[in-house]
Write a structure and sequence with these properties.
Elements (H helix, E strand, L loop, with lengths): L4 E3 L4 E3 L9 H23 L6 E3 L7 E4 L4 E4 L2 E3 L2 E3 L2 H7 L2 H14 L13 H48 L17 H11 L50 H5 L8 H14 L33 H28 L1
Antiparallel strand pairs: 1-2, 3-7, 4-5, 6-7
Length: 337
């Protein structure tokens, strides 16, 4: 019996020796695998005479599976920010390692001999591809230079228009004198007299009369006494301190405490705890701050559920009498000393 062998195309183990490669299933799987790789090889062959150079994008990082070598091959050839399409696959197909692996694969799997040349690239074709790649790189660089020149020209135009606009804004705008051009430079006195004489005549324009103001009379001259600034009062336009920067009198002293005190905080915290308890509980309304006299007695025994109440009452009275006796004895000794 023949030893067990593994077929990577059929993905099964067979025991019929070399006869498995002639079976219909193996030939069918071989044909499907070769047809899956053939379109990529044909696309690479088209780039032999006219190589394509593009700007690098992440999509160019593609790999394809070489059936003959049993390994992954980079499809495109990238360097820096440029990518040569199908350059990696063509370089692999033209290598002697691929040619050796292809011959072995064809011998082991008994593939059609006419199809083997489609998966190989001759050294002459690869040299032709190198020449076309150099030409494509030169043409691509020329196009890039033209694009850069066009962008530089656009930038210059935009900068020139911006400078012209700034220059037009900064230039002083001269207002034409209405009196200029009506007479010669030396005839100003004559013109003024004519204007004064004609000002009394009614004009053809219906202009509203100028208002007569009493304070503009010649008998009451006006005198400018300057800006009257009140010291200490002003606004931000006069250089005064803004109101939000002025310290209040209460804050300047530093004695005022901001917010509640620590004792008030503890009292409020206790109130919040008591709010969570039922309002009808025993002792809810009891005032813990009230003082109790010595005659106050509890309503239960000295010890819970042990003894009677009258025993607790007698014991309380006995302890109170002993305490009073001790206090009186201490007072006498102090007075004697």
């Amino acid at each position: 019996m023949a030893p067990a062998q593994r077929c990577p195309l059929c993905r099964q183990t067979f025991f019929c020796g070399r006869g498995h490669v002639y079976s219909r299933k193996h030939q069918r799987q071989l044909k499907v695998a070769l047809e899956r790789l053939l379109p990529q090889v044909e696309a690479a062959r088209k780039a032999v005479r006219a190589a394509q150079v593009e700007r690098y994008v992440p999509e160019h990082e593609r790999w394809c599976w070489c059936l003959c070598c049993g390994c992954e091959v980079r499809k495109h050839l990238s360097h820096g920010n440029l990518t040569v399409l199908h350059g990696g696959l063509l370089e692999h197909l033209a290598s002697p390692e691929h040619k050796k692996a292809t011959n072995k694969f064809w011998w082991e799997n008994k593939a059609e001999f006419q199809m083997k040349e489609k998966f190989l690239i001759s050294p002459q074709d690869f040299a032709r591809f190198k020449k076309s790649m150099v030409k494509s790189l030169d043409s691509y660089e020329e196009k890039e230079d033209e694009v850069i020149k066009e962008m530089a020209a656009q930038i210059r135009e935009v900068e020139q228009s911006r400078q012209e606009m700034v220059r037009s804004v900064l230039e002083p705008q001269t207002v034409p004198d209405p009196e200029e051009g009506s007479s010669a430079p030396g005839s100003w006195n004559g013109t003024s007299s004519q204007v004064a004489s004609t000002s009394q005549q009614p004009s053809y324009l219906d202009l509203p009369p100028a208002p007569e103001l009493d304070w503009m009379e010649t008998g009451q001259p006006l005198t400018f006494i300057g800006h009257q600034d009140t010291p200490g009062i002003g606004n931000i336009h006069s250089g005064a301190t803004p109101p939000w920067m002025v310290q209040d009198e209460d804050c300047s002293s530093g004695n005022q405490q901001i917010g509640p005190s620590y004792e008030e905080f503890l009292k409020e915290k206790e109130k919040q705890k008591l709010k969570k308890l039922p309002p009808d509980r025993v002792g809810a309304n009891f005032d813990h701050s009230s003082s109790t006299s010595a005659g106050w007695l509890p309503s239960f025994g000295r010890v819970w559920n042990n003894g009677r109440r009258w025993q607790s009452r007698h014991q309380f009275k006995t302890e109170a009498a002993a305490r009073n006796k001790q206090q009186s004895h201490k007072g006498k000794t102090l007075m004697a000393s």
